[in-house]
Amino acid sequence: xxxxxxxxxxxxxxxxxxxxxxxxxxxxxxxxxxxxxxxxxxxxxxxxxxxxxxxxxxxxxxxxxxxxxxxxxxxxxxxxxxxxxxxxxxxxxxxxxxxxxxxxxxxxxxxxxxxxxxxxxxxxxxxxxxxxxxxxxxxxxxxxxxxxxxxxxxxxxxxxxxxxxxxxxxxxxxxxxxxx
Length: 180
Prior knowledge:
By secondary structure, the protein is of the alpha/beta class. It is built from five helices and nine strands. The protein has one domain (2-164): P-loop containing nucleotide triphosphate hydrolases (Rossmann fold). The protein is elongated.
């Protein structure tokens, strides 16, 4: 996963929170991407930046020294981009609450799914990122929660509509066929 967004939106603070939750850092600010397969992009950290994370107000932190060797991963295939975006409260009200904000982000001629997470006071971005990643894994396995929700709602509406029709139990749902 690659976290993107405007300067000062909270990417480094989010990375630090994810580290405290047991996740690993590849690179801060300048990951290097390489095309390693027909549809695989791999990210890694430039040698000069390895182990370090810059956090406003704290300066440069050595993540390996603070959290141990397990906090660093040398490379990882990129399957999802999380884009952080500040939105005004009125813009938050306009979001598609069923589908979210997804688009395709092309990196080295490989299409990678990008989800935009609105940044607003009180939102727990670490939890949202973890949920976005877990949902992405489910989608890759063939399960789409939005589609399942919409299907369930349609079925419930159809059941209620059928129950309200007079004599719905005795009325055939299709015209009878003749065996003659």
